[in-house]
Amino acid sequence: MKTVQLGAGERLTVLNLNREGAVPLKITRAAQDIIEGVRASGDEALRRYCKDFDGVEVDEFRLPQERIDAALDNIDPAFLAALEKAAEQIRDFHQREVQQSWFTTRADGTMLGVKVTPVRAAGIYVPGGRAQYPSTVLMNAIPAKVAGVERVVMVTPPQRDGGISPYTLAAAKVAGVDEVYTVGGAQAIAALAYGTQSIPRVEKITGPGNAYVAAAKRLVSGEVGIDMIAGPSEVCVLADASANPAVVAADLMAQAEHDPLAACYLVTCDAQFATEVERAVEVLVAQSPREDITRTSLDNEGVIVVAADMDAAVDAVNTIAPEHLELHCENAMGLLGSIRNAGAIFVGAWSSEPLGDYVAGPNHTLPTGGTAMFSSPLSVDDFVKRSSVICYTPQGLMNDAPATQAMARREGLWAHALSAGLRRRVLQQGEGSVSADALQGEDLTAVAWPDDEAAVVMRGAALDAAARMDKEA
Fold this sequence. Notes:
The chain is an alpha/beta fold. It has helices at residues 25-41, 43-54, 65-69, 77-95, 134-147, 166-175, 185-194, 211-220, 245-256, 271-285, 291-301, 310-320, 332-335, 353-358, 394-410, 414-429, 436-439, 444-448, 454-459, 461-472; strands at residues 2-5, 102-105, 111-118, 121-125, 151-156, 179-182, 204-206, 225-226, 234-239, 263-268, 302-306, 324-328, 344-347, 384-391.
């Protein structure tokens, strides 16, 4: 692991980190070609790409419903128990995120509010390359179902026999997935975004994948909603001398074993502790069945930051903005308020990050690559949309029209102002005052852009109407 030593008063910068940044242009171009192929040829292109990339000839992409219904018959009871426990706790957590539509009424009767509506169809991408990820099925499908999505579609690369892992399929059944298609890569993202002869399009795509999947999601974003551009997994451990070096080493390895590109960060104020963690890694990694992947990740993407004090250490964590953050410190809960940037925060030595990967309840689909500075974990909110609701009364219109017209005038938008001005005229002079005949030859600019005084703009045209009535009386 690379070590960055920070002196007194020195702060970590993003230049100290080994981050690749955006998806390489070469991969983006390849993904674009695949997307265009699927848009042009649909299922024919999907079959071609499945043969070229997965080495599988697929006749029917959709898995028969009876295979999904029988999924739980083919797994061991202990795994099924783990799935059901995880699903229950994930569902419970996400049910607390559900937002209701709301409305409020002003004193003048104007009603304003928000209407919350789930998307009709969501596609979840489940990787199937180096490993199978039943947990990803739960983490993506359950919040979608909690949100009220009618049609949840899962796509995942076919195995060599053209089928699907029984564990992934069991997770789909437990999570309530409606349709399963054995297709992966950028071509699966294209199919979800644009539809093919056998795969109807969706409105939102979520879930992690390799660089080609990430590039494809970026390219189709705008045509369809996406959750985020997910990069390699990452963890940051903030630890003081009270932490156990072997436990910290294992937690770093838990991310490193995902991918040779996974990033692992250790931030501490104790250089000796950092040395003990590295020694523990050497002891533990020698017995790992994924030793090569783990070593490659730690050697190439691992960073140790030795800070002068805890304030600088916390600042370093916020600069890293990690996907997963573990606080192995005596005063872990006390540090929580200082953490601004992290996808998921694991507080205290007992809060192992893998608990969050599988069963804790909060979502494990998290912002990576520093995007936790402005992004959030996958949630129910990702599967709903909010519509503003605006319902004015005549009095409300009279209150707000003058300010609307004044702002439209300064922006030079005449018809914007006229839209409010004609309604104002109806209320002041009656419906006949805005007939085509009545407006013929009228100075409509005076209707659109009246010279209202500041008091009228602030308090509304009702003030002007009241003054006129008093004068007529």
